């Protein structure tokens, strides 16, 4: 039986946060679950509808929690299961939802499953992992962490075989050919969903199965397993969602929606880097091109659109020309690069240029899909490229100009990471408290934009998109439509002022009303409509039937 669940995720604004980095409620220098709970009012007022929490399970933390050593408990520094229950209850009481990261492809080599598996070749856990005498198997699979790994196989000296790992060698892949593993992962999901969790951001979904002669990515068996998981969730926990992290080319990424019977959502990896390419080239084409490739998708599915997240800005799935543009424009210092990508936050990527930051947010909030904000980007937080791995974009949230950016009362030396103190992004200036007091701050601007996005949630979240034809390649323009609602969106991607003539015969007689201020523009007539645009500026214009009272003059 098909259960028709509410499509809440199609209209939602998501907010991603690492528990460790958000707020430290007990003064030990590490953010915790209670800290997140204490900041729910902030998140609610900002406009976040659903929080995505990075992995908070027990872990040796060699990959920031993406190396899980017990799926049924919480990392002690982060708190307890009771703290988590309380967080869920308080979020729900505000009408907010919470999804959690779930690392399904692999676990930590410290997990008892792996420890048992390496105790002897006869161990009943042995077949929970993928073993080989020969490290040349599955040679079609690429290496993902190219800066640190030279093979997807690692030697296990005790039992003298290689084990398979797609990420760090301390993260052995689970063997999804084993029905016990498939069932156990569903049990893990049941455990958290029963507690009231609203869904999962499933980590690294393309890699669950291995087959000789393939890339070992996006295999039919992987899709079949997620369909099985989806059936379980619809039956036992209706209304909960699955969000796929599948960093893939457009057609492979789209395949994770299945026939509305697999993932509800998938991250829009194809779009994300092309927004930055479009800005670098001052050309709308990269965005138009990719959006045309990734739509339409089934009605009950949605893209999760994002600008930045906790990882490097990945450039694996772009052309070599696009990669070159990205590196030369956005990663001039070698420390800014990691694996095949760029480890920087949004504000530094865009040289802290306010107009560019506003422009990309306006894209994020008006392109088809549900926006996912990364903690700290709403205040324009900076990064620290001198911290290892991806730690430079996971520094303490900047709440105030007080000690430790108001993140923690611990001694500064005790913090899990130094806060940002570089002059342009110093927490003394870039912080929630100061920005709350300044009407023109980035934070107040983002908050305002999210409230406008909510007013137009359906047309922006669910509406169709039609790109408008014109001659100016610097300008991206499209119409979003849903029912009777129409929103005309125009973006000047160039660093210079420009103008635009748009022929809008099908909207003749309608009046553009600027969505943020309510300012009214002259009615659309039969002649081309003329716009002048500041560098990196945009318009969101609702197209409305003029009423007697709003006639010009
Ligand atoms: C996560 C990374 C993590 C990797 C291995 C990803 O795709 O987003 O942060 O290192 O999976 O679990």
Proportion of strand residues: 15-25%
- The count of DSSP E runs of length 2 or more, i.e. the number of strands, is 22
3D shape? globular
Q: What is the number of helical segments per DSSP (H or I, 4+ residues)?
A: 17
Bound molecules: beta-D-glucopyranose
CA distance, first residue to last residue? 59 Å
Q: Give the fraction of residues assigned to helices.
A: 25-40%
Strand order of the largest sheet: 1-2-5-9-10-11-12-15
Largest sheet: 8 strands, parallel, barrel
Structural class: alpha/beta
Low-pLDDT sequence parts: 1-5
Radius of gyration: 24 Å
Query: Mean pLDDT, rounded to whole units?
Result: 96
Record keyword descriptors for this entry.
553 residues, alpha/beta, 5-stranded antiparallel sheet, 28% helix
Q: What report would you give on this structure?
A:
- This protein is of the alpha/beta class.
- It is built from 17 helices and 22 strands.
- It has helices at 8-11, 19-22, 33-38, 40-46, 81-93, 112-117, 179-195, 220-236, 250-254, 271-281, 285-294, 320-330, 346-349, 354-366, 432-437, 442-455, 457-462; strands spanning 14-17, 50-53, 57-58, 70-74, 97-103, 131-132, 153-156, 161-164, 199-203, 241-244, 265-267, 302-306, 313-314, 341-342, 370-374, 464-467, 475-482, 485-492, 498-502, 511-514, 529-533, 538-544.
- The radius of gyration is 24 Å and the shape is globular.
- Mean pLDDT is 96; it is low at 1-5.
- Bound molecules: beta-D-glucopyranose.
- Beta-D-glucopyranose is lined by residues 63, 66, 103, 167, 203-204, 245, 310-311.
